[in-house]
Amino acid sequence: MNNTIPNRQVICEVLSAHAETDRDIVVLCSDSRGSASLAPFFKDHPGQAVEVGIAEQDLVGIAAGLAKAGKKAYAASPASFLTTRSYEQCKVDCAYSGTNVKLIGISGGISYGALGMSHHSAQDIAAMSAIPGMRVYLPSDRHQTKHLFEALLQDTQCAYIRTGRNPVEDVYSGADCPFEMDHATLVRDGRDATIIACGEMVSPAKAAAEILTAEGIDTRVLDMYCVKPIDRAAVLAAAEETHAIVTVEEHAPFGGLGSMVAQIVSEACPKRVLNIALPDAPVITGNSQQVFDHYGMNAAGIAARVREALA
Amino acid sequence: MMETTELNKLSWQLRLDTLDIIMAGGGGHIGGDMSVMEILTELYFREMQVSPDRAEDPNRDYFILSKGHSMEAYYAVLCARGFLSLEDVRSRFSQFGSPYIGHPHNTLPGIEMNSGSLGHGLPVAVGLALAARMDQRPSRVYVVTGDGELAEGSNWEGFMSGAMYHLDNLCCIIDRNRLQISGGTEDVMALDNLKDKLSAFGWQVVDAMDGNSIEELHAAFETARKTKGAPTAIIAHTVKGRGSSVMENKASWHHHVPNPEELSQIRRDLLQRKEACAS
């Protein structure tokens, strides 16, 4: 892999750059500034940084209070804790009360690998998407992460953003990263099948499409970084224009991207939709790549699933 | 600004309004409504810098009702303070499609944050107080919690962070009526000695031995305002269901709806207490 910059580092860079001129930006951490790559922000902008200690409920409640008083609150904590320990604060204090809190779930999915299920957040898409008013974003690479945060800085609604722990392969380049807020990015077009992926699964989806296209299966890839609000039009176009859809997500098999895509497709334009996700079980011990390989969440596994969908 | 005697009398009228709202909606949390009434009265009619014409003023004081189920009392206060219409609240409380639900909802004028689920108010208040300090605004932040509510661990996270950041613009008032839905707080989940606990957490603590006394509350808020370098907790020792022997100090009245006989007795008792106040 050429890229050595994790998405979380890009988040820190964007927030730091804007904090110079926008005094309303406040970053909060729960003893997580190191793992969130936000230590430089705390060092450079101490007046705009709040440490709450290992207390995720307090983290989100305080962020909501700051936002109620006009601040742009960015609360960063491991995705696992942020979306389960403080789930009710996300629901009541952020979404229900309408506060401008951006909830940054770091080391999301199974990023923490061998640390086990306590540290994995394979439920966060389902949980957060089910909250009325909560948006859910899983950017795929560092370039898209930058665009996403530039856009989030301009709005006033709460959102949950999940990012992984490790650097991920670039899907885009700095010069070529098409981005339109709340619209899926067409990574590549194709007429036979569509792979819809989010977060770290976009890169292997793109690689799978290259394998398939070489075999003569012209494969479209949609980067659905905006899991909620999902780009319904892009999903329907894929269902209408290609023969089958395969979804890929670093998430439990229920209530995530696959469920949402299947719901839309079955409603309006029934086509075969197959899902690739983590199992409904604690995942096997390993680092991210080992776990992905084990469950077929890699280029070869995704390509195989597309062939199956077309069979 | 209203004086103590007027506020005292007003608190009894607000109890009567609360009773009307509960009866119109066919339900409510009458016990806690009645215990918290003087706290809300003192806050909204003397202590806090809030009014309908400066609802968006960044320099206003902020109020959070963490014990959100005391909403009927809060409606009565917001109506009397000019944020809402009592007639409208009374006619639509809890009705189909109504904006007047059983917990605070901030689409309504005068309500800052939604609550209902317990243990949320204090961390939010910490955030509000931090923001005021960051922006060097004079705003003070007031949060009212229940006592049974303090079993929620998130409160203690809030007590830690409030003290950590020396938020002397933050005041937490605990409606210490010693009852919760299942019985006495000391039987359900013991809270005593609360003053020592809060002091140990680094808060300035004021015991208002009669938490239904406008005068005592006024003095407690004055202490809070003068305290520098630490947030203040006021433990208001109140009487659940205050105002009528029918419901005072009875856990079963947490959300009991009076039957016709009880209703007329309560109304008589409240009127009598109101009329007994010097005008």
Explain what the structure shows.
- The complex is a heterodimer of chains A (311) and B (279).
- With 311 residues, chain A is an alpha/beta fold.
- Chain A has twelve helices and twelve strands.
- The radius of gyration of chain A is 19 Å and the shape is globular.
- Chain B starts with a helix and ends with a helix.
- Chain B has helices at 4-25, 30-35, 37-47, 71-80, 86-92, 121-134, 153-164, 185-188, 194-200, 214-226, 260-276; strands at 62-65, 141-146, 170-176, 179-180, 183-184, 204-208, 232-237.
- In chain B, helix 1 packs across helix 3, helix 1 (4-25) crosses helix 4 (71-80) and helix 1 runs antiparallel to helix 11 (260-276).
- Chain B has eleven helices and seven strands.
- Chain B has a single domain (4-276), classed as Thiamin diphosphate (ThDP)-binding fold, Pyr/PP domains (Rossmann fold), CATH 3.40.50.
- Classes of the chains: A alpha/beta (311), B alpha/beta (279).
- Chain A binds chain B through residues 26, 47-48, 50, 52-53, 55, 57-58, 60-71, 73, 88-89, 92-93, 96-99, and chain B through 58, 62, 106, 112-117, 119-120, 122-132, 134-135, 139, 153-154, 157-158, 160-161, 164.
Number of helices of chain B: 11
Q: Return the string of H and E elements of chain A.
A: HEHEHEHHEHEHEEEHEEHEHEHH
Shape of chain A: globular
Class by alpha and beta content of chain B: alpha/beta
CATH-scheme architecture of the largest domain in chain A? 3-Layer(aba) Sandwich
Which strand order does the major sheet of chain B show?
1-2-3-7-6
Query: How would you classify the quaternary structure?
Result: heterodimer
- What class, by secondary structure content of chain A? alpha/beta
Strand arrangement within the widest β-sheet of chain A reads 2-1-3-4-6-5-10
CATH topology of the largest domain in chain A: Rossmann fold
